[in-house]
Write a structure and sequence with these properties.
Blueprint lengths: L1 H32 L1 H4 L1 H9 L9 H21 L11 H25 L6 H32 L1
Helix pairs in contact: 1-4, 1-6, 4-5, 5-6
């Protein structure tokens, strides 16, 4: 019974994680495409790193998002993210997520470079940051939920 519960829990986590990575990609695109309207200071930051005010529409990024989400799930599995204890240490969680988000960000930028795409790399970097932050927040919520359930019963 415990094995079956673990399998179900991992499947739910994988589904939520995939949604969070997709949401992170979309939020990164929205932030970068609306940088001027959010605040001129944000566009100044992007321009310092060679960015232009205009970026390609989301349709140009959708292929990378469709490739990134399954790649994130594979990397999470490779780095042992789904083989942790029920309540893992924060350091273990943060380190595994950092490795996955870093490798994924570098890999997507490398693929964009090799494909000679002229897309904003800031979207990909922001995707890595947003995904890392949202995954850490999700893990903290799960940790809190499990701990409160264990204390009650």
């Amino acid at each position: 019974m415990l094995r079956r519960q673990r399998i179900i829990r991992n499947r739910i986590h994988k589904l939520v994680n995939a949604a969070l990575f997709a949401l992170g990609f979309y939020l990164a695109f929205v932030l970068r495409s609306n940088a001027e309207s959010i605040g001129p200071w944000l566009m100044v930051v992007f321009e310092r790193f060679g960015g232009t005010p205009e970026i390609q529409p989301f349709a140009h990024y959708s292929l990378y998002m469709l490739l990134t989400v399954p790649a994130a799930m594979v990397l999470l599995g490779i780095y042992g993210f789904y083989n942790r204890p029920l309540v893992p240490s924060r350091r273990q969680t943060a380190y595994a997520l950092f490795k996955v988000c870093t490798v994924l960000t570098i890999a997507v930028i490398a693929v964009m470079f090799l494909a000679r795409e002229q897309l904003s790399r800031a979207v990909i970097i922001l995707f890595g940051l947003f995904s890392y932050a949202m995954m850490l927040a999700k893990e903290e919520l799960v940790r809190w939920w499990i701990r409160t359930g264990l204390e009650k019963g």
